[in-house]
Write a structure and sequence with these properties.
Structural class: alpha/beta
Number of domains: 2
Distance between the termini: 53 Å
Largest sheet: 5 strands, parallel
CATH topology of the largest domain: Alpha-Beta Plaits
Number of helices: 10
Helix content: 40-55%
Amino acid sequence: MNEKTVVVISQDIVLSGIVGRMLANNYKAFPFKNIQSAIDHIYNTPPDLIIFDTSKQDIFSMDIINNLKSDPIFYQLPVLVIIDGPESVPIWNSFLVEDYLKKSDLEKEGLIRVSLAILRSERIVEVNPLTKLPGNISISRQIQARIDSMEVFALAYADLDHFKPFNDHYGFTRGDDVIRITGRLILNLVKSKQPQSGFVGHIGGDDFVFLMSVDMVEETTEDIINAFDRIIPTLYDKEDKERGFIETLDRQGNTRKFPITSISIGIATNRNRSFTHFGEITEIASEMKKLAKQSWGSCYLTDRRAVNPG
């Protein structure tokens, strides 16, 4: 079971200490003095909850939280705000947070309010527990919403090659590391190119999708492949990395040599053809991904076929 993580943002050292002690036995806390210093950590390693000590005068921090919560990747991330009293509560309908807690009630109610905020988030939104990325329901909704709004966009479907042999050879812990790192890598590169409209989802296992503008998707895909091919070999034992393969059993129980895990990505767009259902564009991206997997090493293929109406 993955340990739940909480980002604690407060300039009050005493309050941070109280929260840290309160969470110590149940959660892993990451303290930060302000939202600016915490934001990179939140994007790179999405927590299960943010505890935020602020005031209604802190408009700048409120804007950053609102921008974060407006992102499809982070809209499910619960935020618990610590306040001095009712008079310091920011306006509910302008601050996208889930709960408020008075400082005077922190030691008495803090732990249960933290637990409830995380539980509510997990019940309402399906998120992959390993990568913290949106799952299949959110992915389908995102794709369909773009189709319905007639937005021109690209859908990329990513899948790892030779991941099962790696998982069997090194064990689930190291296999989980590969999945987690891949999700984080895709998320960071997509969001660095398109902070607002880029979307990354985790279908499950070693399958991911990302949505971007047509003009930026191939450049981003190349960056993902280059970064993946630099990072993943470091997760192999030295001798396996130097040989360029591992020896393990295949699905038929025979000993085989499997190359270093690579990534294959298929891309589909609605620039030259129209779709009415998310399954249609997903199927084409999946088809391109399967074709990409026939090549040696990491690569991507883009569907450039045009379908004329009538």
